[in-house]
Amino acid sequence: MALEAIGSVNTVLPGIRPLKVSDTGDNEVSFKDMLLDAINSVNQLQHESDAITEDFIAGRTDSIHDVMIAGTKASLALDFMIEIRNKIVEAYQEIMRMQV
């Protein structure tokens, strides 16, 4: 059951592709590409939320539900990316504290 919930993260950030490993062990998608795709996806959700909010304010749409859903999706995606950034910074700091 918990694995199903973890799999639903891809619906929040649709730009994230699962990492595929070929038979030779070479990664088809680099970490950099995955991170850039996720950042672009979050940016796209923010722009969509802004556009829907502007449409609502201008009176071009009357669906407050769509406005709230788009805003919540954008907010959750941004929070998720902030947590990923925090974990990357923590990992970097932990590596820098290692003694060789």
Describe the structure.
The chain has helices at about 1-5, 10, 30-60, 65-95. It is mostly helical and about 100 residues long. The protein has one domain. Helix 3 (about 30-60) runs antiparallel to helix 4 (about 65-95). The longest helix is centred in the last third of the chain and has 34 residues, at about 65-95. The radius of gyration is 18 Å and the shape is elongated. About 5% of the residues are buried. Its main location: other.
Please give the count of helices: 4
* Strand residue percentage: under 5%
Tally of DSSP β-strands: 0
Radius of gyration, in angstroms, nearest whole number: 18 Å
The topology string of helices and strands comes to HHHH
Average the pLDDT over all residues and give the rounded result. 83
Overall 3D geometry? elongated
Name the assembly state: single chain
The total tally of domains equals 1
Which parts are unreliable, with pLDDT below 50 for 5 consecutive residues or more?
A: none
Helix share, percent: over 70%
GO biological process, one term: bacterial-type flagellum-dependent cell motility
Protein name: Flagellar hook-basal body complex protein FliE
Subcellular location: Bacterial flagellum basal body
GO molecular function: cytoskeletal motor activity; structural molecule activity
